[in-house]
Amino acid sequence: MKRTGEYTLLIIGLIFSIIGIVLSVFFKFAIKTEDFKVQFENEFNNQIQQSGDIPEGVSANEMLNLIQSLTTFSIIVLIISILLAVFAIVFIKRRRVLAAIFSILAGLVSLLAFNILSLLLFIIAGIMLLVRKNKSDNQFEEAAFQNNDNLNHDTHNGYGSDFNNEKTHDVVKDEVKKNKNNDDPYIY
Known about the structure:
The chain is an all-alpha fold.
C-alpha cells in the first residue's frame, strides 16, 4: 500500500526539526558573543530596576548559563526526534505499527523542545499509520473464490460446460499467484 501521506508528513516534520536545530545552534553561538552578553546584562539590570523585585541569587551570568543549557538541551532533543522520525520512515513499508510507534515517540520528544509543528505532523503520521491497514493476502483469496464461483455458475448454466472443473480451479490458482507476484514490490 502506498504511504505517500505518511512519508510527506514525516519529511515535513523532519524539515521543521532540522530548522529548529539550525536556529538553536545559531542562537547558541550568538549567546557566546561579548556584544550579546553586555547587551543582555544591561537589559537584565534595567528589567530588575523597573520591576522593583530583586531576585535573590539570580544574576545575568546565571541566566545566560541557563539559556545556554536550555539551548543545548533543545538541540539534543531535536536530534533524538529526528532519529526517531528517520526510523519511522525506514520502517513504514515493512513494519507499519513499529513505524507508527517511532513517529508518535518522535512527536512526543519534539514536544520537549517546544517544536509544535513537528509534534503535530509526527503525531498525525503515527495515527495514520495505525489506522490505515495494509492490503492483506485475503483479498487475493477472496478474488479467487469469487472467480471460482463465477466459473462454477457459468458451468451450471451451460455456458462453460466444456471446461473441466479441476482445470478452472488450477487457472484460478495461477491467477491468484500472478496477482500476488504483481502486487509484491520486492519481487523483480
